[in-house]
Amino acid sequence: QQQVKQSPQSLIVQKGGISIINCAYENTAFDYFPWYQQFPGKGPALLIAIRPDVSEKKEGRFTISFNKSAKQFSLHIMDSQPGDSATYFCAAGYFGNEKLTFGTGTRLTIIP
Amino acid sequence: KAGVTQTPRYLIKTRGQQVTLSCSPISGHRSVSWYQQTPGQGLQFLFEYFSETQRNKGNFPGRFSGRQFSNSRSEMNVSTLELGDSALYLCASSLVSLSYEQYFGPGTRLTVT
Predict the structure, then answer these.
(1) Closest chain A C-alpha to B103 CA, distance in angstroms
(2) Which of A43, A54, A78, B49 could covalently link to B68 via disulfide, CB atoms 3.0 to 4.6 Å apart?
(3) Exposure of B72 in the CB half-sphere (CA atoms within 13 A)
(4) Is A98's Cβ below 8 Å from some Cβ in B?
(5) Low-confidence ranges of chain B (pLDDT < 70)
């Protein structure tokens, strides 16, 4: 019940296109859903996060869509750029607990 | 503001040895969490320390232990190293506020031979 399932495993998108990564969770107690971006040789960097009281959150070119009834959330990267090429991880956690459960990661490649 | 720092960045150890990794959180952050990252298992939570006390623990054997000092710096120790312990060990710090955002360090790459 603690799993977070992430898809696709890898994604190739043309420059300027929209990159979409999906995650599904099982534990309805989760109430915090962050996305992390990781470049080779670096630690994950917090990109954007959402709580279940909203269905969408946008920060620049990055948008999280959240569907509480379906227990799914997704990351949309608009106008994808080569610099966005990285591995993206979704995660889930719950209030009062610093433990995050991570998805398996999506390797995103933006081609010119 | 300086980010999370981890030392050493790279480490090579032999099976059976023990190792200690260090993490300095962002100034003012009181919680430090440790994660193991491997290609096969992804990012897995090891444990979390807050005010020198372990608050949360993942599903790792007792060979993995940690501690936190009064200045919030944390160390992680792995005893009797196994080949499967080869991984990137990441620490993350947080303010422990309602936002509970966690910020990761660059990690320590441990190779066990």
Answers:
(1) 7
(2) B49
(3) 19
(4) yes
(5) 1, 96-100
